[in-house]
Amino acid sequence: MNATAAMPENFPALVLNADFRPLSYYPLSLWSWQETVKAVFLDRVNIVSEYDRCVRSASFEMRLPSVVSLKTYVKPALYPAFTRFNVFLRDRFQCQYCGRKDELTFDHVIPRSRGGQTRWDNVVAACSPCNLAKGGDMPHASGMMPRQMPYRPTVFELHRNGRMFPPNYLHESWFDYLYWDSELEP
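Request: output the structure for the sequence above.
Response:
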């Protein structure tokens, strides 16, 4: 193990709700080891799994938790906040006009110059070239209709989409609680 990998800050804990489901998939609900140890001492979480790594003080030693569950169930919100990232996640990080996955921006289907609002039901992910090509035109005038019309997703839909994009690092103790597409599991 190299020195960087041995540092405690590289030992995040997966945070599960009291029903043992992750609080979120994208971004994955992770706490730093400091936040996790504090929550343990405040008796807010149960330790489900641990790393082989310990932290020590003069009078105390503790293995770092790798998975914790909240003691009190947190009811998830039904609808997510409207953010650029959540629009991209709803649209699966694809341009809704051509399908490209790079240079993403967001596009107002009904342009703002024509009274369109910045809301779930009027904004889609679009690559820069498509966004520039559509410009301030209405979809029919530009000949550019989104592949999927914009809508307000539920938190559960965003979690489902988030499972299509697993993070670069997943600790082995997390796999029993994460449900990625089957071809992505170890």
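The beta strands are 13-16, 30-31, 45-56, 61-70, 104-108, 123-127.
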